[in-house]
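Hi Q.,

Before the meeting this afternoon, I wanted you to have the zinc ion prediction in hand. No need to reply - just skim if you have a minute. The sequence and ligand are here:
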Amino acid sequence: MMKKATMKKEIGYTVDLTKIDGDGAFPCPKCGAMISPDDETEETYHIVETKVKNDELAELVLSCKKCGSVIKLVGFLAQPRK
Ligand SMILES: [Zn+2]
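Predicted structure with the ligand bound:
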């Protein structure tokens, strides 16, 4: 029997923004495509889910458009305000 691939979105990777230097851009853990959360054109990624806590972004789940990996971003609240 053939195993059918499911389209279920499962979190493949978790990226902690507090461990990233610079403007928050990071390479996709799978294919290396640069993903910038500040890039609102969604050219390189697609936002799957956002979680807001106390009116602030707490978690962001996105999928890389290049390889389809689902990546969870955490650490927003720990970032100092500028
Ligand atoms: Zn990717």
